[in-house]
Amino acid sequence: MSIHNVPMPDLQIVPTASVLAHEDHDIQRAIPLIERIGHESTMINPPLVAPLDNTRYVVLDGANRVYAFTQLGIPHILVQVAPYDSGLVELETWHHVICGWDADEFIADISQLPELLMSEGNRTTPLPVATIHTRGHRTVHLTLPAESLSTRNILMNHIVRVYQAHATLQRTNLDDLDAIWHLHPTGQAVIMFRPYSPVEILQSAAQNTPLPPGVSRHIVHGRAIRVNYPMERLRDTTVSLEQKNAVLLDWMREKVAQRQVRYYAEATYQFDE
Questions:
Q1: In angstroms, rounded to a whole number, what is the distance separating the alpha carbons of residues 182 and 95?
Q2: Whole-angstrom Cα distance, residue 262 to residue 215?
Q3: Is the residue at 50 inside a domain?
Q4: Domain housing 135
Q5: Vertex 216, ends 166 and 171: CA angle to 5°?
Q6: pLDDT tens digits, 54-68
Q7: Could you tell me the CATH number of the domain that includes residue 160?
Q8: pLDDT band at residue 91 using 50, 70 and 90 as cut-offs
Q9: What is the CATH number of the domain that holds 235?
Q10: Alpha-carbon span 57 to 49, nearest angstrom
Q11: Would 267 be classed as within a structural domain?
Q12: Structural domain tally of the chain?
């Protein structure tokens, strides 16, 4: 599908409990987000989800927002539904920049994890589940002796938790190490994960064996942002789900009629997230 002929976003209100995470929430981001959402009057950016079956959805982007809704006990959540087979979804991978912690100390710490095999220098077989590049020019490949999706995800979560406890985690889509060090002056290491497939994303959610936070990167053409939908309509426990979606449809039609919906095809950077 041409990115210049993208349909209107498929916005729906669904039960919060029906939205499953394929990756763990980021505790560094989730705690302030819970506080913020608890006091907000509008939902700004709806999470992106893909259907898992007839009643459940998988979060493609917005795991921390879904976690916040769950913790706040909000019964329904506004989402944008974007199936993998729609032609609108691209799946890529974030790299993690580890800031403010010595890279050699980090590598020494994760070397104590059971079942983790480490090798330096040229890439080895089997294919690494992740590779670490340090500012000091070390390259360390991480592999598993016997790999399954669940063991891979469990190990990746253990590794990420190690530097979450000691460092500041920043995400980047850049592959150029010099550019990464330039933008992150306190960055001491960058960990690059082996890409996941859409099937692995869906299986991770269905099996409740999530990826670490901030690893998968979903690009959805026609993404709805700055929606600003009233939170009181999502919090309301006296209105049925069907009624809420009927109100949502009327609200969207009014937005279109008032020329308040605009499509941008350009790739953008947002500086007020």
A1: 15
A2: 30
A3: yes
A4: 93-216
A5: 40
A6: 999 999 999 889 999
A7: 3.30.1760.10
A8: very high
A9: 3.90.1530.10
A10: 6
A11: no
A12: 2
